[in-house]
Design brief:
alpha/beta, 8-stranded mixed sheet, 5-stranded parallel sheet, globular, binds ligand NA7
């Protein structure tokens, strides 16, 4: 034990006020569902609060056509219950949103978790009450105040959608929405003139799905993304039986890989192979489903400019082969960043869409959008008329959901001020000056940079272990030391320095042109890049050393 300390004052309830809840979990998504399961199994007085009308988080909201996992479904599901694993049949290798939401509801109902959840309860402010060692949470809808000893933020990494800041957006008379808020009632796209703005993972899914259903589709692309085939397919009864029989092995493998997937990086050494050998390997990866092309690639792709450039050119040629018009193909090939340094969107016939007569690509890096009009939009070059405008313009990632809550810690300090230039945390789970607040898949955690549910499960298990320790010892408060936090944040920063991704303008580095202060691509150290095994080893070690780095009282 190095920098942890235990104050000598005993944990006395004494005259202090007792909170209504022992634990409040904010967010009823994949994380909140498992967290409440663990807490209520222990008989803890806990509740989940969520601003949405129902559970599911990401999978409740993102109902746009084409929304689906890029993770193999059977590596995305929870691993904690053998019974659940035996019962659930994933119908597709990369399951779509409706099925994913059905799954989360099935889990909540199976374990009777819904009765611990309260919906349309947005926590918009929370203040740490130092005299009583508890959090006071303000509920937006009712104005009610709730008190809880501990707060677990399961608020999501990509839960705050961001719209562009373009003049005239309210003037448009047709249908328009961010993909996150795609209407719940069916949208008839037949014969419609549709615009999609944005070509990230979301834009690429929605464009490919709707191109043959709309009358005319215009894609407004500011920067292209590297993308490769997803390789989705149905899962038959026999295959599912085989997967079930191998679940232990599958999850063990996910634990061993940096990304928490089945895909393991190739460590033969890029330069140990001939170019022909490398190309042969890439040819095999291009036909392999899921993130194989990214995560089974040579490790050098992520850190070595030359290796990355060679592979990027390989993918550029794949795009050239798939797009008929060479000028369009060139526009679809990223020039400002190499493959895999931003999140790689996976696609199904995306590039072929641009061979259709009813699809047009507008490069808004050349001809920016000037304004949205009543009937469509105007670029510096042309007027366009649309029935529907879809904004696939991304999220205020990682810290956005924290910025939406007015969080006041010890001595009146504000998290928004402390994190103005980027987050600083201890293990991505706690932050100094905000006692008893635990972040699930928080900024700088390993959970944030992996196959989310795999990281979430290990995060929930660690958090539950920490709380059990606190209860066992009779403490009512813990807080990381400033030193432990600084050392973790430095460690996280250092890891960025070797990765090519540090140069990319993406949500991994805190870039978002639509969020004040995030426009300029100034790095925010959002994720832990050491991979899941190292992260889990580190947090396990901390737990074994009596949660070193945390001060308990
Ligand atoms: P992303 O990956 O942040 O992509 C957003 C896209 O929208 C991207 O192409 C942006 O272009 C574009 N964008 C954003 N703002 C504008 C404005 N103002 N004008 C034009 N184009 C704009 O978000 P996604 O939703 O696709 O994916 C997020 C994650 O969700 C994904 O990684 C998965 O893990 C799930 P830019 O590249 O910034 O030039």
């Amino acid at each position: 034990m190095t920098d942890s300390a235990v104050m000598d004052q005993p944990a006395t309830a004494g005259s202090r006020m007792q909170p209504q809840y022992e634990v409040v979990v904010i967010g009823a998504g994949v994380g909140g569902i498992y967290q409440i399961k663990r807490l209520t199994d222990l008989g803890i007085n806990a509740v989940v609060l969520d601003g949405s009308p129902d559970l599911g988080g990401t999978w409740y909201w993102n109902r746009y056509p084409g929304a689906r996992f890029d993770s193999e479904s059977y590596t995305y599901g929870y691993s904690f219950s053998k019974e659940l694993l035996d019962e659930w049949h994933w119908r597709e290798r990369f399951s779509g949103q409706p099925e994913n939401l059905k799954y989360l509801n099935y889990v909540a109902d199976k374990f009777d978790l819904r009765r611990h959840m309260r919906f349309e309860q947005t926590v918009d402010a929370m203040v740490f009450d130092e005299a009583n060692d508890l959090w006071r949470l303000q509920i937006k809808e009712s104005g009610e105040e709730l008190t809880s000893r501990f707060v677990i933020t399961a608020v999501g990494l990509l839960s705050i959608p961001t719209l562009p800041r373009i003049e005239g957006m309210d003037d448009f008379k047709g249908g328009s929405w961010h993909t996150h808020y795609w209407p719940q009632e069916p949208v008839d796209l037949t014969g419609k003139r549709v615009a999609v703005i944005g070509t990230g993972a979301t834009g690429i899914q929605v464009i490919a799905e709707i191109a043959d259903k709309v009358g005319h589709l215009t894609v407004f692309q500011r920067r292209p993304n590297w993308s490769a085939p997803l390789g989705n397919s149905e899962i038959s009864d026999e295959e599912m039986a085989d997967i079930r029989a191998r679940y232990d092995e599958i999850f063990e493998r996910c634990k061993r890989t940096p990304g928490g997937f089945e895909h393991e990086p190739d460590r033969r050494g890029f330069y140990n192979l001939t170019k022909e050998e490398r190309v042969a390997y890439w040819d095999s990866l291009y036909g392999t489903p899921g993130f194989a092309i990214w995560l089974r690639n040579f490790v050098e792709i992520f850190v070595d400019e030359e290796a990355n450039a060679e592979f990027s050119e390989y993918i550029a040629n794949r795009i050239r082969q798939r797009v008929n018009d060479p000028a369009v193909a060139e526009k679809l090939i990223p020039k400002d960043h190499g493959f895999g340094v931003q999140r790689v969107p996976m696609e199904t016939n995306y590039f072929e869409v641009y061979n259709q007569d009813n699809v047009e690509l507008v490069d808004i890096s050349e001809t920016p959008i000037e304004r949205i009009t009543e009937t469509g939009l105007r670029t510096t070059e042309r007027e366009f008329d649309f029935d529907i405008i879809v904004y696939a313009t991304g999220f205020d990632a990682i810290t956005g959901a924290y910025d939406r809550i007015d969080i006041t810690g010890v001595g009146g300090r504000k998290l928004a001020d402390d994190w103005k230039d980027g987050p600083s945390t201890y293990l991505g789970m706690t932050t100094h000056g905000y006692p008893n607040m635990i972040m699930l898949a928080g900024p700088q955690s390993g959970s944030a940079s992996t196959n989310f549910p795999r990281g979430i499960e290990s995060g929930v298990d660690w958090i539950t272990g920490l709380l059990e320790y606190v209860w066992e010892k009779g403490y009512t408060r813990f807080d990381p030391t400033a030193e432990a936090q600084q050392s973790w944040t430095e460690h996280v920063k250092k890891m960025y320095s070797s990765m090519l991704m540090r140069k990319a303008k993406s949500w991994f580095t805190g870039y978002n042109s639509n969020v004040e202060g995030h426009e300029h691509g100034k790095i925010r150290y959002f994720v832990y890049n050491g991979g899941a095994p190292k992260y889990v080893n580190k947090i396990t070690e901390v737990a074994q050393n009596d949660y070193e780095g945390l001060v308990f009282s």
